[in-house]
Structures are given as structure tokens and as C-alpha cells.
Amino acid sequence: MAILVDDAVWPWRGRVWAHLVSDTSVDELHAFASRLGIPRRAFQGDHYDVTDELRECAIAEGARAVDSRTVVRALRAAGLRKRPTSAGGHHQP
């Protein structure tokens, strides 16, 4: 059971963002996000988008820093992966 966070490389609104996921359950992810002060409404179906600063806080709280491919593999292995629904194939944070 682990919380994973990828590199903050996804640009949006002048910031760079990362993905925060669980390799086990969305309940574990929601609990971790709550400890970071992230509201439930920020949940993106299988992850939370976090700023580069919040990424560092997540790592300090025990999240494991991984690359984006590891995030996707972990979500698929856990059966938690959701497909993006936007026309462009990737949603914004």
C-alpha cells in the first residue's frame, strides 16, 4: 500500500502539476489528500492534481516519488485507472 506522486511537469495556469495516486484504493488516497488539506472536490476520478509545492509536502508525509509511467501502471494494476474524458485526451488539473 503506497501513495505515489509523479514529477510536477504538467503545465496549467502558469504552474506545473503532478498526479497523486494510491496503488491500493481511493479510500487510502482520499485519506492522504485530506491530511494535505486537499478538498474531495479536487478528486479527478483516479487521482488528485497537486502543485509542485504540494508534491513536496506529499513526499514529506510519506508519498513515494515516481515517474508518470509508474503512476499509470500502479493505477492499472490496482484496477483504479480511469480514462480521460476530455476531447483532447488529457484533462486539465
Describe this structure in words.
With 93 residues, the chain is of the alpha+beta class. The chain has one domain. It has three helices and five strands. The chain is globular, with a radius of gyration of 12 Å.
Summary, kept brief:
This protein is an alpha+beta fold. It is built from 3 helices and 5 strands. The radius of gyration is 12 Å and the shape is globular.
Count of individual helical segments? 3
The tally of domains stands at: 1
Strand content range: 15-25%
Largest sheet data: 5 strands, mixed
Overall pLDDT level: 90
Order of helices and strands: EEEHEHEH
Shape: globular
Q: Using DSSP, what is the number of strands?
A: 5
Q: State the helical fraction.
A: 25-40%
Radius of gyration from the alpha-carbon trace, in angstroms: 12 Å
Distance between the termini: 25 Å
Q: Catalogue the unreliable spans.
A: none
Backbone structural class: alpha+beta
Features:
93 residues, alpha+beta, five-stranded mixed sheet, 32% helix
Helix-strand blueprint:
Blueprint: E1 3-5, E2 10-12, E3 15-22, H1 26-35, E4 48-51, H2 52-60, E5 64-65, H3 68-78
Parallel strand pairs: 1-5
Antiparallel strand pairs: 1-3, 2-3, 3-4
